Amino acid sequence: MGPGQTKHPGLVAVFGVFSNAFLLRIFIARKPSNDSPSKLYPALLAVLDILLCIAYLLLFVVDVQMIYLQDVALFTAYHSYIIWVLSFSRMNQLAIPCLLILATAERLAWLTPKMRRSRSAGRRQIAVAVGVVTLCVLIRIPALYLLDVDTFPGCSEPMRRLAVAPTILASDPWWFFYDTYFIVIIQTVIPFVVLIVLNIIIVRRLGRKEKLLVAGDTVEDTVEQKQLERRRSSGGSRVIATFRLYKTSSSVRSAVYAMVAIVCTYLVSNGLHIFLLLLEKTHASVLYVDGDEYQASGVYTALSDSVSIAYMLSSAVRLFIYAACNREVRQQLIYFGTRLGAGEKETPAGWMSVEGQLRRSVNATLLHNLLHRDVRFRETCLRSMEERRLCRPLEIHQSVRPPFTRQTAPTVMALEGGEANFLLCGGANGEVSLRNLGLDPADPMAWMSMPHKLCHRNFVNDCQFYTNDIRLFVTGAQDGVVKLWDLNEVRVLDEWRFDTAPLQLHWHEWSTKGGNPLIAVATKGSQIRLIDTRAGIAQELSSRHQSVVSIRWCPTRRHLLLAGTQDGALLAFDARSGRGALATLQPFQKTCGVVALRFSQSGWVAVPYREKILWATVPPEGDDGDVDVRELAGHFQSVNDVLYRNHSQQLLSAGGDQQLLVWGALGQKLGSTARRGIEETARADAWSDED
């Protein structure tokens, strides 16, 4: 027997070691998420697969090489570890199907809509995994005492002075029953049956879900409009059943598909093992030469080797399975093959194409060509900018005070996305008011206040109109509550409570028919909340940063979400994946937090700075000119929020002096309707030509 006969299986075993080590690195580096199954069981399976491939190399490849080379030193080393490695491989072979059952059961549970994903699930999984592995070790510990290495020092041939022989325990009838029936049943038969049943259930459930999703996507737009109308008549979202409520996230589906494929590869090797066991227990004549049970036939040898190779192959191909089913692993594999070999510094798992675009140089307040789109990214963070004494192109046209019941300052504003005629204001005392900008401020119909009993208890942090229906808007306040409002009936449709206050929220501005029901909420923690307004449920996206303070959906990529952190980092997420950040950018110093994010088509950006407004223009892409900053002074206290009204070329600002200022072009200030009427009457020519 030459080394060429074990060359290919040996190479596969070596590949299995490195591929599973690569998978283990990805599983360990990935931060746990409440929106996808845990990576604990896959990580443990990767460890066991590494050890199984190493055991194959030590037991089979070394055996063939020492006989072919007649290496006495290798022969002695082989017999020094064979008992321990063989016993450990048996423990490993028992632990792998047990962990496969646990992982498959976990995936099945994630396909159940009523499953409650508690925060203590991770600790329970660790305890269960440790308990199962410990039990497998205890069950297979007697294997250490079944074989022993006998020495024959008087033998003239060095390669025959050591031999593996059974001990007295191996001939005990109780051990024969234990090893022949008990071990075979719990290691081979039971896992085979249980895994087949679990995977049949998973496949059937996935099939039903896919049919449901296809039907849901077909009528998604019309269903959403009907559900919004149903909300207004039913008084809440808790009784609404939607297709999205039962939709399984892509991260869950990919995890389930990967585990189903892994189990199928295991079932192939396990099925081959069961077939060999049946032949052995029935003493099939095909296994022996001329009926002699002490002389194995070529078929017996081939089947035995095939079982070992099948188990090893099932461990080695895990990387291809995860690469086919898991985009994160696939992107890491592509990155490893194309960039790591070129000597570039390795980065965390993520969407490399996104990161490549985000790593482009920035010019103070903007990023160019995000995701191959000519969309300029603005961050209006509270930081010092270069102040210049330039001519002021804007002047104050109006100064009004919101009709809050108490003397309080407006803290946040929002404009409806149509003609921008309606302004939504939130106050420091939790009140919410709306103003019709098309009416004169003196008109009593210009303002509308929400009932005080429905408002927040304190400081309103953010608010926004729904893009496709200005009768709906959402607010978030320091009391930890996000509320969905209906202007038709002046009531709260739904509300979501969080442990920490929502600092910023953004309702997706996707303007196609049906819109987008997702509201992203930043709560100054590592978790980003995603609220589905149709289903009334909140999901989470995890980040490695502990303080996400700003949030924004990309207007050109429906599922791309950007977040800013208190330490100056910029994060990109894919809402469909449910994973951590796809890419991370650090364009600012860690002492400067990204407290606001905006996408803009123009070259202007307004930055609140103390009691002033910095009205800046950013040069177009390719122009290295300076940022033109102009100072607007009108408030007597700090400016809380700034909005740009594109249709009328106006700038709106809210300050701590309880005033709302409307800024317009210099020299185009218009008075009130009543004042204009008086002026026109006074200037009218009432004299006749005869007089």
UniProtKB/TrEMBL annotation:
It is found in: Membrane. Keywords: Membrane, Transmembrane, Transmembrane helix, WD repeat. Coiled coil: none annotated. The keyword Nucleotide-binding does not apply. The chain crosses the membrane at residues 12-28, 40-61, 81-105, 126-147, 181-203, 254-279. The keyword Membrane applies. It comes from the Eukaryota. Pfam families: WD40. This is G-protein coupled receptors family 1 profile domain-containing protein. It comes from Mesorhabditis spiculigera.
